[in-house]
Structure formats: C-alpha cells, structure tokens
Amino acid sequence: MKTNFAIAIIILALLAPLSQAAGADDDYSIAYINDFSGDCEIKRKGERTGEALRDIFIPLYEGDTVITEAGSTMEIVFDDATVLKLDPYSRLVIRNLKRDKKNTSTVLELIKGRVMGVIKKLTDKEEFAVRTKLAMAAVKGTELLVETGARGDDDKVAVFKGKVEVSSFDMSGKVRHRVILNDNKETLIVKRIGPEKPKSLSRNTVRKYNEIKDARKKLDYIREMRRSGKAREYRLERRLERIDNLKRMRSSDPSFKKLDPKQKELIDEIIRREEYYRAQLGELKKKEKRPSRIQRLLDRKSGKNVPEESDE
To answer: What is the pTM of this model?
Structure first.
C-alpha cells in the first residue's frame, strides 16, 4: 500500500495539465510554480484548505501559500526570472507582489522550512525580501538561503554571493538590530536577541551551494528564453520532458504494473497528448525561421528576390 501511494505521488508530479492548468495569461503572471516533486500543495488566499499540485506553470498571487511535505521540493519563478527553491517540510506565503512604473516589491514570508534563491541584481526602486517570524532579509541581488529553526527560537540567513540586509524588529515594528551579509557569510537570528555577528558559511550551508549553482543555470536559460520571446516554447519543451519521464516509467519501471487501472489510464491519457504538444512546438519553430514582414519589405526594397509569404 505504501509503495502504491509513493508511486501515485510521483505520477502527480509528472502529470501534464489537468484541472489546475492555467489559462493563456499564465505566461504573463508575476510568479508561477516552475517545477515540483513529491507531495506539494497550494492554498489560495481566503481558502481554508489547500489543493494538491498536479501541474507545473501554476500562477501565484498575493496571499497564496505553497507547502512542501516530506521528500518534496518546489521551484518558483518570478517575472524577472528570479528562481526560488523550497526544501521539504516548508511553508511559504506570498505577502506582496507589487508591480508598477515607479517601483516593484516582492515580499515573501517563510513560515517554516528552508528556501534558497537566485535573485537578480535590484535597482533602488526594486524590493525583494524574505521575512520569518524573527527577522526580515532584504535582498539586494544575491544567491541566498533562508531557514527557520525547528523550535521557532532561531532562524538562519546565508549569502553565497551578493548582499543581504538582515533586520530584527521590536514590538512597535522599529528596527532593533541590523547586520549586513556579503559573500559567503551567514547569521543566526535568535529570538528576543536578533541577528548575530556575520560569520563564515557552515559546512551544512556550503553543501547546499550546488543546488544554487543549478538554479543559476536555470535562471540564465529562462531569462534568455523570455528575452528572445520563447517563453511558450520553453513551456512546451518542459511538458514534453515530463511526458518522456512517464513513458520511461511505463516501459521500464516494475512498479508501474502495480498501479490500479485508473492510474494507468491517466498516464496513457497524458502520453497521448505528446503529438499535440510536439505539433505546437513544431509550429513555433517554423515561425522562428520565417522572416518578419518588416524584414521581407526591407529585402524587397534592397532588390532581393523574396518569395510570396505562405498562408500556412
């Protein structure tokens, strides 16, 4: 029974769009769930209970809460291609997602667990902060880790690269203590005391740095896809990647045979969508190869022999 339950969780993490699939405007959402594994939930603002995640590219809004259970992780991407990763047993609330011509503000609250992130370098008019019960970490553009203590008596903020201002507050909301963290420094925020003097990264923190490196590579790739107008192409490629994982599981994983008929049919249904996604991806790649109308006009004016545009 436990094996079947674990398999079901894996399947949910691999599924293509189901009831949670977002509309066409998810390409323009400020934040969305880019990836997840295991048993994760999203609780919308005002809702009493959460809903198990079944899909990627789910938009996130102010007031939403995301949750990871045992052995589960989640990756969140923001509109500037900032990437955050939640470790198992984490709970994160989206407190503020403000975007206007004058300034931008992203404020997150880590209720429990650990979050790591690669955040772009910010301007004076941009704010990105992660707060816990004990402190606020104001990011200036960095690779960082924020972690809550198991008992709620201490939290940790670590900086792999960049700069973070860590502040604790009194009951009236005024800053009580403040420290600045630079490259390869961390601080422990102790209840009723505040952040300690910055010190070198601990061994446990250094071990997490490889995950930051992976996030940085992904951040660069996502930024390039958005910059070149290929966000939709990126998402189709991701969906096809997940279908490939399901196909491998169906053909070579012995545990697949233990699934009930409904679970097997669900996997088959998802795999059948492969042709549709590949056709969409093919159309996008065709359009990339076609010269724009402006380019065609310029070529004609310069005397080049430009064939008539196809209606396809």
So the answer is: 0.73
